[in-house]
Specification:
37% of the residues lie in helices and 34% in strands. It has a single domain, classed as Nuclear Transport Factor 2, Chain: A (Roll), CATH 3.10.450.40. The N and C termini lie far apart (37 Å). It is of the alpha+beta class. The chain has three helices and five strands, in the order αβααββββ. The protein has helices spanning 5-22, 29-37, 44-54, and strands at residues 24-26, 59-68, 71-79, 85-91, 97-102. The longest helix has 18 residues, at 5-22. Mean pLDDT is 84; it is low at 17-22. This is Peptidase propeptide and YPEB domain-containing protein.
Length: 104
């Protein structure tokens, strides 16, 4: 591939980013129910315990179940008592907090 090496680098990074983003799949409520009933994932209220222990009094704004590289992950947004929106990723199988950051 000839041409501008900077442009080529930008294209490669963009394609790599799109590939990573495409690997996550949102699950609908029926799929979530089936996974919970079969014991593959825990109920959301049980998974939220660790998050709410970390942020007492926080309000759940949004929760989405996703499959990322064959791992089921709940992506949740919390509004803390201080008014800060936090984005957390919880392993849907055991509730482990995988990511915790301020949502932009």
């Amino acid at each position: 591939m000839k041409g501008n090496p900077i442009l080529r680098g930008i294209c490669i990074v963009t394609l790599a980013t799109l590939t990573c983003v495409a690997s996550a799949r949102d699950l609908d409520q029926d799929e979530a129910r089936d996974l919970r009933l079969s014991g593959v994932i825990l109920p959301l209220d049980q998974l939220m315990r660790a998050a709410l222990e970390r942020y007492p009094g926080a309000t759940l704004l949004e929760a989405e179940l996703e499959e990322e590289d064959d791992v089921f992950v709940y992506e949740v947004e919390l509004l803390t008592r201080e008014g800060v929106v936090r984005e957390l990723e919880l392993d849907a199988h055991d509730g482990k907090i995988l990511k915790d950051e301020v949502d932009d």
